[in-house]
């Protein structure tokens, strides 16, 4: 009796693991599968089983951030002025405006240096929220426009290889608070880098230091120290530096007040305050309105509440 049970346990322990249902034998052994009515197109179609679904989590804010590849070298090769090249920043902004115009689901974008973050509304269903499709579309649309618009912004400077390319990534933020913190993080980074770069290049260009000497001087300094160096040595009041450089660039649709009511969720008159589902015609109307609304670029604070409170459609629409 005991021996029989022991044998059966032993048998069970060595039973082969069940094969995962989704991966057919032919996918592993590279032999053509038997044709089934569902795979009637060609014997090769089974290779689709290797593709993985990559839809981003529902009901989360999607941020696609693109960043220039090797722009340290690219900017030197094309003679960008230091620390900020107005033409280069204008070109980045112009390309970003085209991306926002092309994709109405982008509610806001923020750019600094060689990067841009594009925010897709948490309700978006664009490309079924497929990560690779969103990231590659936004990145390549931006890159194409950057190349196309180059001569307008650098009429005297031909574009030289290696041509500009951008990488892209998507991150989902589950709450409005997380998204606001992300945007604040990028803008705070802009301020920190700009203060550093402004002081660094003042020491080099006006103070006659080598880049190594300037780097050594700034090592371990705080913001107030850099402000002090700028003011005492170069009579530069950092607060008076252009907002463009201090705040970066915020790109968004500038709706008029009377249009905003069409964009925000309507609350039903019943006791519950759940927003009503929008009908298809309302959604279409919203899309049309988005298409004809000007996309603007501003250099304003997005860390404090004011920007968001004054533009409720950015986070509240849909
Ligand atoms: N002179 C000048 N350089 C700029 C300007 N904007 C961006 N850059 C350069 O672009 C670089 C962007 O930094 P990163 O994105 O961290 O570095 P990267 O060289 O692009 O390298 P990867 O992004 O890792 O490929 C800066 O360090 C600058 O060298 C500008 O307005 N003027
Ligand atoms: Mg870069
Ligand atoms: Mg960068």
Automatic annotation (TrEMBL):
- Which InterPro entries does the record associate with it? Thg1_C_dom, tRNAHis_GuaTrfase_cat, tRNAHis_GuaTrfase_Thg1, tRNAHis_GuaTrfase_Thg1_sf
What EC number(s) are associated with this protein in UniProt? Answer: 2.7.7.79
MF annotations from Gene Ontology: tRNA guanylyltransferase activity
Please indicate if the UniProt record lists Cell cycle as a keyword: no
Query: Catalytic activity, per the record?
Result: a 5'-end ribonucleotide-tRNA(His) + GTP + ATP + H2O = a 5'-end phospho-guanosine-ribonucleotide-tRNA(His) + AMP + 2 diphosphate + H(+)
Which residue ranges are recorded for the region named Disordered?
A: 266-287
Q: Where is the composition biased (Basic and acidic residues)?
A: 275-287
Instruction: Report keywords, A-Z.
Output: GTP-binding, Magnesium, Metal-binding, Nucleotide-binding, Nucleotidyltransferase, Transferase, tRNA processing
Annotated Thg1 C-terminal domain residues? 178-304
Query: What cofactors does the UniProt entry give for this protein?
Result: Mg(2+)
Q: Where does the record place the tRNAHis guanylyltransferase catalytic domain?
A: 44-174
Job of this protein? Adds a GMP to the 5'-end of tRNA(His) after transcription and RNase P cleavage.
Q: Into which family does the record put it?
A: Belongs to the tRNA(His) guanylyltransferase family.
Q: Which PANTHER family match?
A: TRNA(HIS) GUANYLYLTRANSFERASE-RELATED
Name of the protein: tRNA(His) guanylyltransferase
Lineage of producing organism: Eukaryota, Fungi, Dikarya, Ascomycota, Pezizomycotina
